[in-house]
Prior knowledge:
Layout: E1 2-7, H1 16-28, E2 33-36, H2 51-61, E3 66-69, E4 72-73, H3 79-92, E5 99-102, H4 107-110, H5 120-138, E6 143-146, E7 151-155, E8 169-175, H6 179-184, E9 189-194, H7 202-212, E10 223-227, H8 241-248, E11 252-255, H9 264-275
Parallel strand pairs: 1-2, 1-11, 2-3, 4-5, 5-8, 8-9, 9-10, 10-11
Antiparallel strand pairs: 6-7
Amino acid sequence: MRFALNVPNFGALSDPGILMDLAADAERSGWDGFFLWDHILLWDRNPIADPWIALAAIAVRTERIRIGPMVTPVARRRPWKVAREATSLDHLSRGRLIFGAGLGNPADAEFQAFGEAPDARVRAAKLDEGLEIIAGMWGGERYEYQGEYYRIERFSFLPRPLQQPRIPVWIAGKWPNTAPFRRAARWDGVFPMRVGDEQMTPDDVREVMEYLNRYRDPEKGFDVSIFLEGMVDRTGLQPGLIEEFSRAGVTWLHDGPGFDDATEAGVEAFRHHIRMGPPSIS
């Protein structure tokens, strides 16, 4: 089991310098991951830091902790640009990047507000094509692609990422919707949430795993990563819950501050909790 911080880079947490300091604190305190949200516009939440720029700064400031966007809406990006950025960040971090990807929500703020198609089927098709392109370009061989939404002429994309056979790709999805989990089964991990944003339970995880195992190769490594509120400040955690999640198949637990904690006082409280280190598991 690994423990991560999942940070909404808004408000007082939109300062890349603060994010760098928090990530360094997390690494010194024994946390295993430091992930940032990837949004352009999230309703009235402003200011917002660009996660990829902040992650580059964090990569320079840290040495061990895993980092990444959690998650990037691939449909609102050019896949070849994402592939290039991810490869550069993988090199800068010396192979510590995890690439979280998903459909992107809320659709009105992330897509419609900028003249992009908000339709979920279009976003899903662009996500699948984009992931195929990104992985193909990471391979380093001469590569071409022709799909419904993207076309790439044949060329080589170098350098390859440090991590091989590729940078780990985790797919986000809201259970019990099943399409995101069939997608996740083709990649390296899953970041499940519940429709309605309710807390995932160990029984939910077991249902997700039972479904995923119908489609994925059981011989390949696979991460199951969920958000478990209360780990950071040690409040409201049911005794034995972490161990139960582990038995259900979870490999990473994330926690972080809420929207209303993105104030100067909230940042300092978060920093204090980070320095307590991750919870222990028996």
